[in-house]
Amino acid sequence: MKNTLTSYILSSFMAGLLFIASVSAQEDTSDSTENRHMDFEPTLGKKDYDDRGKVVTYPRFFGGLTFTRIDWGFSRLIDNGSFTLSPENQPLDYGRASNFGFDVAQVGLRFTDMFKVYVSTGFEWNYLRLKNDVILDTDAVPLTFVESTTDYRRNVFTSTYLRVPLTFEFRSRKNRHGDRAKIAVGAMTGILLKGTQRLRSEEFGRQKFRDNYNLASFQYGAFARVGYGSMGVFAKYYLNDMFENSPNQQSLNNFTFGLTLGF
């Protein structure tokens, strides 16, 4: 199963590279100004391009507040290399799982018109819509599930992290419309802010509980983005265990993929 997952990821990256190659073949060799076209990237601070028609010289430092790299997609739990959960993790079986995040600040260095490196920070949420009527014990270590007699219409478990990715971004030359093909790879880290379980039932109505739920206090992994203009797709693989101090959840990781706006 691990080989299958690796093959799937490599195939996705190769498809992205072929996409960039095909787009680049249609692009012209326009100058290094960005006044003809601006991507979706609201930014306060020094940019890595000049939007007033001036020629940009490199290397060029940039940084400031921003609202970009807005990710929305799907999540899959990987249990010891398999998408099928082990018996110990069946309480975490889910109907839908999603990932949402965005960056709010960045600083970096553009070396050339086609390559830059930057560190950014933002927020990220992972949502699991649980199938089972279980409540995660807020006081137990390791992670403990409590079977409930209540029939929950909604049972959503959420983790919230402050994310800090390091990105290496490559882009092609602009085409005649001012758009570029882009690919970015890098490493990401994150600090746990909170865990939340939201419940809804006929008996108790809406309920919300907050705790760290033995979630990893520090997460890390790798990611890749492939895009054109301001739109793209992303994939992230978290190398750390999703939970800590919980032997039954050892080697339970998270894999996410989806769409990016402001890439």
From TrEMBL:
Secretion signal, residue range per the UniProt entry: 1-25
Source organism superkingdom: Bacteria
Residue span, Outer membrane protein beta-barrel domain: 90-239
Pfam family name, one: OMP_b-brl_2
Keyword terms: Signal
Protein name from the UniProt record: Outer membrane protein beta-barrel domain-containing protein
Naturally occurring in which organism (per UniProt): Sphingobacterium deserti
